Amino acid sequence: MDRNLTTKSKEEDAKNRLYRAALEVFATKGFAATSVNDIVKIADLSKGAFYHYYHSKDDLLFLIHDEFITYELNLVKEVEKNKEFTCHEKLRRMINIIWESIDKYKENFAIFFQEMKFIQGEKFELISKKRKDLEKAFVTVLQEGIDNGEFK
Predict the structure, then answer these.
(1) Which of 15, 35, 45, 68 has the fewest C-beta atoms under 10 angstroms from its C-beta?
(2) Residue 38 vs residues 9, 15, 16, 107, 130: alpha-carbon distances, Å
(3) How far apart are CA 124 and CA 69, in angstroms?
């Protein structure tokens, strides 16, 4: 077996365990009350492992938000660009994407709205831009539908 592949999969496993642990602890204790010790205890990893992959718990909070907003944005953009769909069909599909995303990323979604006040600086700007791009996709489809007479 390729040693690099084994090392890479172990690293991905450790990062995923830390991520899943942060989701669990942020959901139960909240971001502010969560310590790095809480996260590594649930992940069954050392603090050294945590700091090898992340600079702070803020990085994990950002990733929790970024994962679901990126998922939504990518799917919504695909629908928005599809020339075969009517605006009505695009809007229906885009709304379904949001509902399915909420179901798929329940924990992420709840943490986002409870803890978004803790995301600041560049990370806040990145999340805000993606949220604005998502909103813009909906507005574009609605405006297109109004312009072509599909929506009144």
Answers:
(1) 35
(2) 24, 15, 15, 17, 30
(3) 13
Which tens digit of pLDDT belongs to each residue from 6-15? Answer: 666 877 889 9
- Chain segment 6-54, per-residue pLDDT in tens: 666 877 889 999 999 999 999 999 999 999 999 999 999 999 999 999 9
Q: Which amino acid is at 33?
A: A
